[in-house]
Amino acid sequence: MKTAPTFDKLVDELSRLPGVGPRTAARLAFFIVKQPEAWVETLAKTLLDVKRKIRFCSICGQTTEEDPCAICADPRRDSRVICVVEEPQDVITIERTHAYHGRYHVLHGAISPLDGIGPEQLRIESLMKRLEDGTVQEVVIATNFTTKGETTALYLARLLHAKNIRVTRPAHGIPLGGNLEYVDENTVGQAVAARQSF
Amino acid sequence: MKTAPTFDKLVDELSRLPGVGPRTAARLAFFIVKQPEAWVETLAKTLLDVKRKIRFCSICGQTTEEDPCAICADPRRDSRVICVVEEPQDVITIERTHAYHGRYHVLHGAISPLDGIGPEQLRIESLMKRLEDGTVQEVVIATNFTTKGETTALYLARLLHAKNIRVTRPAHGIPLGGNLEYVDENTVGQAVAARQSF
Asked: Which of A16, A47, A62 to mutate to test the interface with B (most CBs of B within 10 A)?
């Protein structure tokens, strides 16, 4: 289609978003065309605002407008526990559970030699700095349960064990509402091995 | 998360895009935060450009920067055939096949009484106007093969048969590369009924 260069440009730009292929990009672009101009202006402005105002917290690495972020600045959070995650969105996922009241540390990635990402590309040095004053007694390694995430967890665990800090990892197990038949056998195996009294 | 109101606003705005739920919106927003400012500026500008420059062709209803659009203005397109589609993106889908050389007419929707969309909400009157001078000899009704699309096709077919115009519809059948076992039985049934000599 040579009809509309501006339109094609928007499709190109939207295709660069994660998980958005050319077809989805075209669908989004057609949606934009049909929206009121005021909303498109708001969207464009908000995109720029986010890019200009949002930074990463200098302590934990989470996205924030204020530095330090609200969690790092909150005196009610338990500063004896740090939960290490791969990405800022993982903080949101864990916060949503209301099951954790400590601090966070965002690595901004996971060790992945094939992608050229080693420990020095991650926020591991700043994590070690946070442990120096002896306040932190436990580090929860909540990297993903993927190859990269597990590799990163093992690497961190080795570093942290040397520091005489309690190192934990969220439990493997059957998801809530999980039907045994549909849960993969490795998960079931680990869940059985880690069975708890009832 | 009360950390970043600007960020939350972007997530809200992105959630209004079709097929984008709160989780995908958050993923996109985190992606935006990590991109270079120049790209976010380009994206924001392109969104506004599209909204300001793209209009609908006054003849066929397709998205375009120039009115009439490139297809309506192209003297090499066969003006004896009009292909009726539901949405502008359907024009792109059909153009991509290089199998059609006529003109288009975009209805901007399909008949859907439950959504309060009747024939008068669609670009049907302008289609009828295009048939008045007797140039058009065939109308291909390429609305979707869904309940709404079929309803619309039936409605249009009835209107058009009264005008002594050839009315066609793209063939049902087994998709290319389609494995009979995985194609639904209604499609297989229609494909067998419409079998062609080989």
From this structure: A47
Structural domain containing residue B43: 5-53
Rounded to a whole number of angstroms, the CA Rg of chain A reads: 21
- Helix residue ranges, H only, B54-168: 70-73, 88-97, 125-130, 147-161
Of residues A172, A174, A143, the one with CA closest to residue A156: A143
Query: Which residues of chain B does A46 touch, with a Cβ-Cβ cutoff of 8 Å?
Result: 6, 9-10, 13
B51 contacts in chain A (CB < 8 Å):
32-33, 35, 37, 40-41
Q: Which residues does chain B have within 8 Å of residue A70's beta carbon, measured at their own beta carbons?
A: 2-3
Are the C-beta atoms of A72 and A61 separated by less than 8 Å?
Answer: no
Q: Are residues B104 and B28 in the same domain?
A: no
What does the pLDDT look like over B124-156, one tens digit per residue? 999 999 999 999 999 999 999 889 999 999 999
Q: Evaluate if residue B159 carries a pLDDT over 90.
A: yes
Name which of A31, A63, A95 is nearest B7 (Cβ-Cβ). Answer: A63
B138 shares a domain with B93: yes
Distance in angstroms between the alpha carbons of the first and the last residue of chain B: 64
Verify that A117 and A81 share a domain, yes or no: yes
pLDDT of residue A187: 80
CB contact under 8 A, A6 and B48: no
CA angle (A87, A90, A92) in 5-degree steps: 125
Q: How far is B23 from chain A (nearest CA, A)?
A: 9
> Any idea which residue has 């670009």 for tokens?
B123
Residues of chain A with pLDDT under 50: 1
Average pLDDT value for residue range B77-99: 91
Say yes or no: B145 and B103 in one domain: yes
pLDDT mean across residues, chain B: 90
In single-letter form, the type of residue at position A14 comes to L
Chain A residues whose beta carbon lies within 8 Å of the beta carbon of residue B19 = 24, 27
Res. B72: pLDDT tops 90 = yes
Domain count for chain A, please give it: 2
pTM for the full model?
0.73
pLDDT score recorded for residue B76:
96
On whether residue A196 sits in a domain, the answer given is no
| Nearest beta carbon to residue B40 from set A18, A48, A87 | A48
Residues B39 and B105 in one domain: no
CATH code of residue A41: 1.10.8.420
Is ipTM > 0.90 here? no
